[in-house]
TrEMBL record:
Residues 2-116 form the Response regulatory domain. The modification 4-aspartylphosphate is found at residue 51. GO terms for molecular function: ATP binding; sequence-specific DNA binding. This is NtrC-family two-component system response regulator AlgB.
Length: 455
């Protein structure tokens, strides 16, 4: 944890810093209200240790101000025996706990582990809220196809082992969902599952996001920072879009995989990591190795257990199974009495190519549930095949409407895609909205913009 120690007595600040650092946390100190509030403004902390007798200032006033400005920040107050009443008052006003001075390492450690538990609970609440907000149906890991069944079996057999897992597959086939499922079926299920989106950051920021950095390691590094490897300690680190990992970072990841060791940016201390790695990509990594953009040794290290999430085109027998699951889920989410698909709607689902895979199907069914009149989803509630970017015969000339390529003419998917993304980037207020409308995540949007030269 990153801890701010607020005390006017140097001897207490120094001794507490030592104890906090010995316990494996990061400490910063402040001597009064204004330096404390400034430090809290500059960087996020996980805990404030506050002396209620803050020289000429009243620690309880500062407690109130911290709670006003940083309502999520837990505060533990220091107190001397004579001021125990003040400590009780502080707790009544929202402090999480108190420590009576002088305190021992063991007493501090008990309080810190209580705060950790509190933090984990708070994180879990946020995670659950995000899950509810993102309205994700319970994942389905079943298939009518023996080949797909086998893929899922290999994946889940590997789950209980410590082996690294590489998940391949087109965009939207459920690689991230599968990675989380592997974690939940492993002995690490109770520990964190931490995702790193490899393409969404510059090389420098990605390195710091992964491994952390020390204060002053680069411009803007105003204080020490633990990376995601540390955040995933004991759990699983999921490297999404590993194919986009910059070449310069690949040796560091290889070392993490091979030796379970890493260093934060800007320091020489070697640290041990206890993380299980799951990586995913929609790239052909073998081709990237041939092209020299992906290290061969890293590829072999990752390629221990490799599964390919099948595209929906390769599992036509599962289409209606998924469509029904999504329909049930969204009908209950939106409180709509939609109980089935009409025969033409089912036909349309089966006839469509679903290039965006499960993500596209999910989004199409969500929309259809909203549009449906009555108990049945009609074919007209589903996006028409052309609207989904599945262009039929391409015999005609390239046709454009005001320089925008038109669907159904001799125009490539890439041109259509580029025009569509460009138009959305112009009309929608931010990238998150564009990604939501396109039914892809922001990392995928970032990749597409780069590929199509739209950034
Ligand atoms: N097994 C599943 N059961 C039900 N729904 C699923 C399943 N897998 C994926 N989905 C749905 O498809 C969406 C996309 O899945 P996910 O983000 O895991 O795909 P991805 O392959 O990681 O995509 P990308 O490569 O674009 O990041 C999910 O939000 C979820 O709604």
């Amino acid at each position: 944890m990153d801890i701010l120690i607020i005390d006017d007595e140097k001897i207490i600040r120094d001794a507490t810093t030592q104890l906090v650092e010995d316990a494996g946390h990061y400490a910063e100190t402040a001597t009064d209200s204004s330096t404390a509030l400034q430090a809290l403004k500059e960087s996020p902390f996980h805990l404030a240790l506050l002396d209620v007798n803050l020289g000429r200032e009243n620690g309880l006033d500062l407690l109130a101000e911290i709670q006003r400005q940083h309502p999520q920040l837990p505060v533990v107050v220091f107190t001397a025996a004579a001021t125990i009443k003040t400590a009780v008052e502080a707790m009544r006003r929202g402090a999480l706990d108190f420590l009576e001075k002088p305190f021992s390492e063991a007493q501090l450690s008990i309080v810190l582990s209580r705060v950790q538990k509190h933090r984990k609970l708070a994180e879990r609440v946020v995670e659950l809220q995000t899950q509810v907000a993102s309205q994700s149906p319970e994942p389905v890991f079943d298939s009518a196809s023996p080949a797909v069944k086998e893929v899922l079996e290999v994946l889940f057999r590997a789950a209980s082992t410590p082996a690294s897992v590489l998940i391949l597959g087109e965009s939207g086939t459920g690689k991230s969902v599968a990675a989380r499922a592997v974690h939940l079926r492993s002995a690490r299920a109770e520990k964190p599952f931490v995702t790193v989106n490899c393409p969404s950051l510059s090389k420098e920021l990605l390195e710091s996001e992964l491994f952390g950095h020390t204060k002053g390691a680069f411009t803007g590094a105003v204080r020490d920072h633990w990376g995601k490897v540390k955040a995933a300690e004991g759990g699983t680190l999921f490297l999404d879009e590993i194919g986009e990992l910059p070449l310069e970072l690949q040796p560091k990841l290889l070392r993490l995989l091979q030796d379970r060791e890493y260093e934060r940016v800007g320091e020489n201390t070697t640290r041990a990591a206890d993380v299980r790695i799951i990586a995913a990509t929609n790239r052909d990594l073998r081709k990237s190795v041939e092209a020299g953009t992906f290290r061969e040794d890293l590829y072999y290290r990752l390629n221990v257990i490799t599964v390919e999430m099948p595209s929906l085109r390769r599992r036509p027998d599962d289409l209606l199974l998924f469509a029904d699951k999504f329909r049930e889920f969204f009908a209950s989410q939106f409180g709509r009495p939609v109980r089935s698909f009409s025969a033409p709607a089912r036909h349309q689902i089966l006839a469509h190519g679903w290039p965006g895979n499960l993500r596209e199907l999910r989004n199409a069914v969500e929309r259809a549930v909203i549009l449906a009149h009555g108990k049945e989803i009609a074919a007209t509630d589903l996006p028409s095949p052309s609207a989904n970017g599945v262009v039929g015969g391409v015999g005609g000339d390239v046709a454009t409407a005001g320089n925008v390529p038109m669907v159904g003419t001799a125009v490539s998917l890439e041109e259509l895609e580029s025009a569509h993304i460009k138009a959305l980037l112009k009309t929608l207020p931010n990238l998150a909205d564009v990604a939501r409308v396109l039914g892809i995540d922001q990392a995928t949007l970032y990749r597409k913009r780069k590929k199509l030269g739209l950034d």
